[in-house]
Structures are given as structure tokens and as C-alpha cells.
Automatic annotation (TrEMBL):
<feature type="region of interest" description="Disordered">
    <location>
        <begin position="1"/>
        <end position="20"/>
    </location>
</feature>
<dbReference type="InterPro" id="IPR041726">
    <property type="entry name" value="ACAD10_11_N"/>
</dbReference>
<dbReference type="InterPro" id="IPR002575">
    <property type="entry name" value="Aminoglycoside_PTrfase"/>
</dbReference>
<dbReference type="Pfam" id="PF01636">
    <property type="entry name" value="APH"/>
</dbReference>
<dbReference type="InterPro" id="IPR052898">
    <property type="entry name" value="ACAD10-like"/>
</dbReference>
<feature type="domain" description="Aminoglycoside phosphotransferase">
    <location>
        <begin position="48"/>
        <end position="288"/>
    </location>
</feature>
<protein>
    <submittedName>
        <fullName>Phosphotransferase family protein</fullName>
    </submittedName>
</protein>
<dbReference type="InterPro" id="IPR011009">
    <property type="entry name" value="Kinase-like_dom_sf"/>
</dbReference>
Length: 358
């Protein structure tokens, strides 16, 4: 007789990772919503899986056996909706459709938390690879890695050429005083998670506050632009820019500077790999030069922006370190995050010194 005591239950995920029960997404309630929002889209039983990606929001792939969709919602148990605003992600991607910036097509937004327990939105499943590690790029060879890097830069420049008003993004952010607010915001975040004396943090903040440059013409800012937040297709083209949860209107050079800091870091942080250091990939200097050429923007004050990006990443890392010390992190690798803070702060100070700032 067949012994099914060890057989998976009907809700257990199959070999492909899809199942009928996933945390945070009630498929019956989702089906009822989506069938009304997109009549005829769903034609069979739904299954889903949680996929990696995103700074903190949960991402699911849902299928009925023929169609596939991506669903995004805030983390489980999250109560501060303003920190994980689904409508902002949905709005910016919807606005950028047809702009020349590759984004997934958006299908529906549900602002009612009673449907699955939190607001969520549904978008197109785009095929592509989010390259995170240099080992993933290595089989492509230096020439293809170079082409991907160049297209990464060109896509960022294209984003920063979008007119927010023409795209329907008026009021999406407050460009005036953006840099000053960024300096204040990250200092406030640091003060909320201090667990040790960091004199370079105070020095870097003081230097940034005293040397805010004239702001670059405002644009749509992604907020966390890097290679592993892009999907690259089989022809090495950028198929989609993902993870818009930090998007706003502001100074676009903050996007470029953060990208450069990610590229220059010797030790990647959580969720960030070393793909941009693969053989053939453009150097940080080459990235900056190509961006200047493609965007037409003045990079004379780039040292300030790099200093600000270092300060931002240092504060984020210190916050993770603080939560690790208080037993509030889940997963591996957090014990080393604290060691990344002081090198980031020193890099920020060096960026300002190279610019000759006082």
C-alpha cells in the first residue's frame, strides 16, 4: 500500500516553488479583486511563490497556468503605511509607461487593506536577469558586460530627462530644498539609531550641511538605482527598472552618486552584490563621464553628492547594526554590517576634500 504520510499537502509548493498558500497573499481574495479589475485575465486556478528582490516590500509571482503577474505588498506586520506606499510605486511606473524608461506595465492597484491585509498592486511579469554577482556576468565576457554597464547609464540618463509635469507626476515630490532635507533627514535617522560614538559621522554631516551646492534641475529620482534593480534581457538590453519604493522628485545627481558609491565599495552590503566590478564593466569614472555626456548635467559638485550618498549608506548600515545589537534582525550576515559604517564615513569626507570643500 502507498504510504502518503510524507507526501506534501495540497497547499505545499511544488518543485517550481509555486503553491496555493503563500504568506501575506490570500489567493482566493486576490482572485476576486483581480477578476473584477481585469475581467477575463484569470482563466484557471491560481498558484503563487515569493520571489527575491526589493529593499523591504514583498514580491510574489502569481500564475493561473497560462498568464503570470507580479504582486507587490508591504512587509508582513508592517503598520506604517507611509514607509511602504504601494500607490507611489504604482503611480511612478504607470506615469513612466511610454517615456523611454523601461518599466513593467501596471495592471491594478488595491488601496483597501481588507482584501489581503495590506494595500498592493499588480504588474507585468518581465523576463530578464537582475545581475547581482560578478560570477553571473563572467560567462558573458567583458564586451557584453561593458554593453550592459553602458545601457545601465543610458537608462538612468533617460529617466532624468523625463519631464515630471508632462508625465503626470506633478506633486510627486518636493524638489525645492531637496538636498537640505536629505542632509537633515539622514542626520535625524542617525540620531535615532546611535549605539556608539561616530565622530566622522558628525564631521561629515557638518561638512555636508555647510556646503550644499546649487541644486541640479529637478527630475524623477529612483532612489536606489543599481544593476541588481534592473532586469537585463537575453540581448543585454535593460528590460525593466524595478523597485521604485524610494522614488520621488528631487536632484537626480543623488541617483548617480549612490550608484558610484555602490560601485566603489570594497565590501557589498545586504542585498547588494559585486556584479558592477565584473571584467569589462565600466569603471566609476567611465560611468560618471558617460552620464555627463548623455544627460548634459554639470558634475562639478559631484563630490558633495558622493559624500551625501556615503552618509546615507552609513546611516542605513548603522541602523541595521543597531537592530542587530538589539536582536531585531532576521537572517545571516548582519553581524558584519557595523564594520562598514566608518569606511563609508571616511569615503564621504574624502569626497568632499577632493572637491576642496571646507
Amino acid at each position: 500500500m502507498f504510504d502518503d504520510s510524507a507526501a506534501p499537502g495540497p497547499d505545499a509548493p511544488g518543485p517550481d516553488g509555486f503553491g496555493t498558500a503563500v504568506p501575506g497573499l490570500d489567493l482566493d481574495r486576490f482572485r476576486a479583486f483581480f477578476a473584477e479589475a481585469r475581467p477575463g485575465a484569470v482563466t484557471g486556478p491560481l498558484r503563487a511563490r515569493v520571489i527575491a528582490g526589493g529593499r523591504s516590500n514583498l514580491t510574489y509571482e502569481v500564475t493561473d497556468g497560462s498568464g503570470r503577474w507580479i504582486v507587490r505588498r508591504p512587509p508582513l506586520g508592517h503598520v506604517l503605511a507611509t514607509a511602504h506606499d504601494m500607490s507611489r510605486e504604482h503611480r511612478v511606473m504607470t506615469a513612466l509607461a511610454g517615456s523611454g524608461v523601461p518599466v513593467p506595465e501596471t495592471y491594478a492597484l488595491c488601496a483597501d487593506p481588507d482584501v489581503i491585509g495590506a494595500p498592493f498592486y499588480v504588474m507585468e511579469k518581465v523576463d530578464g536577469t537582475p545581475y547581482r554577482d560578478a560570477a553571473e556576468l563572467a560567462p558573458l565576457g567583458p564586451a557584453r558586460a561593458a554593453a550592459i554597464g553602458e545601457r545601465m547609464v543610458d537608462t538612468l540618463a533617460a529617466l532624468h530627462r523625463v519631464d515630471p509635469d508632462q508625465a503626470g507626476l506633478t506633486g510627486f515630490g518636493r524638489p525645492d530644498g531637496f538636498l537640505e532635507r536629505q542632509v537633515r533627514r539622514w542626520k535625524k535617522q542617525l540620531d535615532a539609531s546611535r549605539s556608539r560614538d561616530l565622530p566622522d559621522a558628525d564631521a561629515l554631516h557638518a561638512r555636508l550641511a555647510a556646503n550644499v551646492p546649487a541644486q541640479s534641475p529637478p527630475a524623477v529620482v529612483h532612489g536606489d538605482y543599481r544593476l541588481d534593480n534592473l532586469l537585463v534581457d537575453a540581448d543585454d538590453r535593460i528590460a525593466a527598472v524595478l523597485d521604485w519604493e524610494m522614488a520621488t522628485l528631487g536632484d537626480p545627481l543623488t541617483d548617480l552618486a549612490l550608484l558610484l558609491v555602490y560601485m566603489r565599495r570594497q565590501a557589498p552590503g545586504p542585498g547588494q552584490g559585486d556584479a558592477m566590478r565584473a571584467a569589462g564593466f565600466p569603471s566609476p569614472d567611465e560611468v560618471a563621464a558617460r552620464y555627463a555626456e548623455r544627460s548634459g548635467r554639470d558634475l562639478a559638485s559631484l563630490g558633495f553628492y558622493v559624500g551625501l550618498a556615503c552618509f546615507k549608506l552609513a546611516v542605513i548600515s548603522e541602523g541595521i547594526h543597531y537592530r542587530y545589537l538589539h536582536g531585531q534582525t532576521v537572517g545571516e550576515g548582519f553581524e558584519a554590517i557595523g564594520a562598514a559604517v566608518e569606511p563609508l564615513l571616511k569615503s564621504g569626507l574624502e569626497a568632499l576634500e577632493e572637491l576642496g570643500e571646507e
